[in-house]
Design goal:
The protein starts with 8 loop residues before the first strand and ends in a 9-residue tail after the last strand. The chain is α+β, with helices and mostly antiparallel strands. The radius of gyration is 52 Å and the shape is rod-shaped. The mean pLDDT is 87. The protein is built from eleven helices and 13 strands. β12 and β13 form a beta hairpin. α6 packs antiparallel against α8. The longest helix is centred in the middle third of the chain and has 48 residues. Helix content is 50%, strand content 15%. It binds adenosine-5'-triphosphate and magnesium ion. Magnesium ion binds next to α1.
Length: 438
């Protein structure tokens, strides 16, 4: 099976208002006309119910007084037969049979039919009646390789983040504005002076320890000197001990000499640092800074505000970039109708929201969309053809030809000679569509 499918013959018996009709469509547009209540929609429903599955069937598909209804949609390559029978319990029992041109019967008839019907509705009016968001979603498939959901989710996340950043920036700015600082005031860095004091104290401590050691050495040298005097005085008195004492004296003098040499060879002690002056500087800095009020706090708040503002701007830029990518994808999309475009979560027709276009404009666009869905089955149903003036009807004929579609359109007593006229549940005249007996 391949190539487009169209209805070559339709028969419907006892469907809703119909007794029996048989239509052999010619051309692209098959107009079904007649008075209100004559059975026009019953003809269109018969096609729809035969093809689109039982979930669309209304509560009473069988004409009052009849026991069963039967619809045959002959598409040449495929012949679809749908029947409804009233069961003993009053339940409506449907059957479906799909056979090929060679008479072979298909096993899963409804899935065969489902694969033929477009993803957009068989009835374009349904597209028209959708909420703007649903229309938007239905057309997304014309924009390939673009993940609208992911984009929307990212945008929602970023909108929240930007809101937070803007709020924080505002708070910080407001807090900063409350702080008044004298003109040309520049704060002195107290911490730098505190650091200098700490390192000076450590430095001085080290020197104090070395001084103590040196003081002990000096003390020892002084003691030895003093001993030498005593020894000399005692030499006279204690001649016996002279030898011993002199030896000791010599020894100790040598030691003294050695210590002296070591002391003199040692590096001079560094100069002590002036902590008192630094402390005075710190006091002066504190007095100065107190006079400047909360300038440092203000500087911090302003820096925070700037950081938040920059964050907000970054988020904004990436949201704009995403919008640009989306616009580009949409511009590249191959929408089936001139003047049709994507708005923000809705469809636009000639720049206006779809629902604000005229009834006929909406109808034509919806039909074009349904046709562009390019299902194999080229059958389209328009229930509200009565809305179309002559120009719109002609535009519909052009569209049907352009898309090679077979459009069944219901109008009310249009008077067009080409139309099939339904009267009292039967075909009263065939227009350009024959009703020859098989
Ligand atoms: N199961 C049924 N048995 C008998 N009559 C029915 C049944 N179902 C609907 N009808 C009648 O058929 C008529 C509606 O048929 P249908 O909708 O096909 O008419 P129509 O020509 O499309 O009308 P309109 O111009 O108002 O759209 C109503 O009068 C309704 O009472
Ligand atoms: Mg109707």
């Amino acid at each position: 099976m391949s190539g487009p499918l169209r209805i070559v013959r339709l028969t419907a018996e006892n469907v809703k208002r119909l007794t029996a009709v048989e239509i052999v469509p010619k051309g692209n547009v098959i107009e079904i006309t007649g008075n209100n209540g004559a059975g026009k929609s019953s003809v269109l429903d018969a096609i729809f119910w035969a093809l689109a599955g039982t979930k669309h069937v209304q509560a009473k598909p069988i004409r009052d007084g009849a026991e069963s209804a039967r619809i045959v949609v002959d598409m040449g390559e495929l012949v679809v037969t749908r029947t409804f029978r009233r069961g003993a319990d009053g339940e409506i029992k449907p059957t479906l049979r799909v056979e090929g041109a060679d008479g072979a019967v298909f096993q899963k008839p409804q899935s065969i039919l489902d694969s033929l019907l477009g993803t957009l509705s068989f009835d374009p009016i349904e597209f028209e009646r959708k909420a703007p968001k649903e229309q938007f979603d239905a057309l997304r498939r014309f924009v390939p390789d673009f993940d609208f959901e992911a984009l929307d989710a990212q945008t929602r996340g970023d909108t929240e983040k930007r809101k937070d950043a803007n709020r924080d920036a505002k708070q910080k700015r407001a807090a900063a504005d409350l702080i008044v600082v004298p003109e040309n005031f520049s704060p002195i860095d107290e911490q730098a002076i505190i650091d200098q004091i700490t390192s000076a104290a450590e430095h001085n401590d080290t020197i104090a320890k070395r001084e103590e050691r040196r003081r002990q050495v000096d003390q020892r040298i002084a003691d030895i000197d003093r001993n030498a005097d005593i020894f000399e005085r005692e030499i006279a008195e204690l001649e016996k001990r002279i030898a011993t004492l002199r030896a000791k004296l010599l020894e100790e003098e040598e030691e003294a000499e050695e210590l002296r040499e070591r002391r003199d060879a040692a590096e001079p002690l560094p100069v002590r640092l002036d902590v008192a002056t630094l402390r005075a500087q710190l006091d002066a800095a504190r007095r100065h800074n107190a006079a400047g009020g909360r300038a440092a706090e203000k500087v911090r708040l302003l820096a925070d505000a700037e950081a938040f503002e920059a964050e907000s701007a970054r988020i904004n830029a990436r949201m704009e970039e995403r919008e640009r990518v989306k616009r580009e994808a949409i511009e590249k999309a191959n929408l089936p109708v001139r003047g049709l475009s994507f708005g923000d979560g809705c469809i636009l027709l000639n720049g206006q929201p779809f629902e604000q276009a005229s009834a006929a404009e909406r109808l034509t666009a919806s039909v074009a969309i349904a046709m562009a869905s390019n299902s194999r089955l080229r059958v389209i149903r328009i229930s509200e053809g009565a809305l179309m003036d002559r120009d719109t009807f002609e535009a519909l004929e052009d569209l049907a030809e352009r898309f090679d579609a077979q459009v069944f359109v219901e109008t009310v007593s249009s008077g067009r000679p080409s139309a099939v006229v339904i009267e009292d549940g039967e075909v009263a005249s065939f227009g350009s569509h024959t009703g020859e007996e098989k």
